[in-house]
Amino acid sequence: MNLQNLLEWRRSYRKFDESRLISKNDIDEILNSIKFASCANNRQYLRFISVENKDKVLEIFDNTKWAASLPNNIGRPKEGERPVYFIAILSDEAKKLRFNGLDEGLVISNLTLTAAEKGIGSCIIGSVNDKKMREILNYKDNYSCEVVIAFGYPKVKSTIKEIDLEEDQSYYLDEDGNYLVPKYKKDDIVRRI
Length: 193
Fold this sequence. Notes:
Helix content is 30%, strand content 22%. The protein is an alpha+beta fold. Strands 1-2-4-3 form a four-stranded antiparallel sheet, sandwiched between helices. A three-stranded mixed sheet has the order 5-7-6. A hairpin with a 5-residue loop joins β6 (172-173) and β7. The longest helix is centred in the middle third of the chain and has 16 residues, at 102-117. InterPro entries: Nitroreductase, Nitroreductase-like. Belongs to the nitroreductase family.
């Protein structure tokens, strides 16, 4: 897949084929992409937990909120659609700089693009409870978990639909249950000088 196609394919997926596991080799390649992410002042204050154990994956799933633009009974994966793998991203609060969120975004892009190149979908979930994640994943007190990424082989399609600035940008499901993600047109959001 060329880069433009890969970027277009890499959308948020919220329904996965729970019967298809991700190989150890693919997980290792996804995790290897971490070291290629730029970071502010090369602080490397992020830490990662690769959640491969099925029971832990389900425990994390049970403690996340999905698809804020959709009713919970529609946006949350059901049994057979849940992710098979998670990566938790931890921040060392003492080492953070004023670029809060930038380092996370850069590494998330690497992780999700590497997965997408292998046909593995992902969903970035910021609706996590640090206290609950700490109980499940047992990490040090100076770290906090603000985001987890769910992975699995998608059961649905997720495509972009170009819209005008005055249109609603909330994603939704089409009549076949596939995701449509409204995105503003490039010329409406980019000013060239």
